[in-house]
């Protein structure tokens, strides 16, 4: 009889854990995202959507800026997942590559700016703990992660852009 009770408790435990996770989202991340969306939309309304779009179009004219600086600023100021919303100001043809570059840079940024992607901090801290035990400094690791992250974001953005252009041309 104990085995049936244990199975039943384990089964319901999944849903209890799911409910606790959901409650955490409702009380933590969802209000943060709503506040960030409200703030961002307020700034856009105050400045003017056309001006913001023109500025973003000029700023993202070159792939180097579009797939490095733009996602970096989105992560630093809006964090993950809200930073994805800056992609709305890009031309449609660049959006898939922006999202790929953003995702590629979302993890490497955590060493220097943990707020940008707090959900991935455990990965960085696991690696950092191993390096500390081996006697290495973490500052260099964080800087190298950041630089390599920008390079990978640029490569992934450019490659995804080329693949997207090729696939959409094939549809014509």
From TrEMBL:
One Gene Ontology term from the biological process aspect of the record: phosphoenolpyruvate-dependent sugar phosphotransferase system
GO CC terms: membrane
Coiled-coil annotated residue ranges, if any: none
Protein name according to UniProt: PTS system glucitol/sorbitol-specific IIC component
Alphabetical list of PROSITE patterns matching this protein: PTS_EIIC_TYPE_5
Keywords: Membrane, Transmembrane, Transmembrane helix
Pfam families (alphabetical): EII-GUT
PANTHER family: PTS SYSTEM GLUCITOL/SORBITOL-SPECIFIC EIIC COMPONENT, PTS SYSTEM GLUCITOL_SORBITOL-SPECIFIC EIIC COMPONENT
InterPro entries in the cross-refs: PTS_IID_sorb
Annotated TM spans: 25-44, 64-84, 141-159
């Amino acid at each position: 009889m104990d085995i049936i009770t244990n199975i039943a408790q384990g089964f319901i435990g999944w849903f209890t854990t799911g409910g606790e996770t959901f409650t955490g989202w409702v009380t933590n991340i969802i209000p943060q995202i709503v506040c960030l969306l409200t703030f961002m939309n307020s700034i856009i309304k105050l400045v003017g959507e056309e001006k913001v779009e023109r500025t973003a179009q000029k700023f993202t004219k070159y792939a180097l800026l579009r797939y490095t600086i733009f996602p970096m600023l989105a992560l630093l100021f809006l964090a993950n997942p809200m930073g994805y919303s800056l992609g709305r100001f890009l031309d449609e043809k660049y959006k898939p590559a922006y999202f790929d570059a953003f995702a590629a840079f979302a993890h490497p940024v955590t060493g220097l700016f943990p707020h940008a992607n707090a959900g991935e901090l455990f990965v960085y801290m696991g690696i950092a703990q191993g390096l500390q035990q081996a006697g290495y400094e973490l500052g260099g690791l964080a800087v190298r992660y950041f630089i390599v992250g920008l390079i990978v974001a640029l490569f992934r953005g450019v490659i995804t852009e080329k693949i997207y252009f090729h696939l959409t041309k094939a549809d014509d």
